[in-house]
Design goal:
By secondary structure, this protein is of the alpha/beta class. The chain contains 8 helices and 15 strands.
Amino acid sequence: MLTKPALAPGVQSVPVRRRGARLERDLVVVEDPLEIRVDGKPLVVTMRTPGHDSELAAGFLFGEGVVGNADEIVSIQAQAGSSQRDTQIRVANFSGDAVDMTLREGLAKPNVAHAEREFRATAACGVCGKTEIADLDADLPAVVPMEVDPSLLETLPDTLRRAQELFEATGGIHAAGIFDPHGSLLCSYEDIGRHNAVDKAIGHFVLKNAMPLSDRILVVSGRAGFELVQKALKASIPVMVSVGAASSLAVQMATDASMALYSFAGPGHGNLHVRE
């Protein structure tokens, strides 16, 4: 019998055969493209796990500097597409889903033209569409340091893990959660792309007009790469916790910004990165 998460749009049942045994069914994470549009104009296509597409679009466009808060958004509509065969991946049928965000009339939109690009981003790519190394640099808001007991930070990955229904069903999906300073989970999202999971979590607060996240903690289920630290800093998040390792650039970016970055976090252990 399939578990409840199998009914979600992010999970699919597929046939498998395990070491010569009879044919069975297994659950896998769905990977499907989503087109994000601004004022009806295509901006980007990203590979994602279906579900919470509006949050994904809002978080992505916030990170790109296209929108700053919900007051700038007139409407955001998720549009289900009809299944269509992709010409590049011959064996796959894709849904053609899209999210169209309409911005406030008269709003200055110089960043929309800057962000516009024609490309397909894989779920693992955080720098797709960048044409120059300088494009990877970005102005980031000031982060106000926040003191948090490491023993509290070490408990947060387990709290996030208990909220990961799709991971429980498939074993193959990333997660990101936003916590308050006392360790209460405020929201959590899963996606095959770790960058998408963070965008969904941040987008949750963009749509609630609750930015910046200057007294919040971001927890990610994988490693801490510079792209995820950059997304967190753009949202003014002062503390980030990762289950996996941190990269050299992530450490440099976090410590330069006075962000508390805690990697390899788990019960009784973790690395708080500091300046030399």
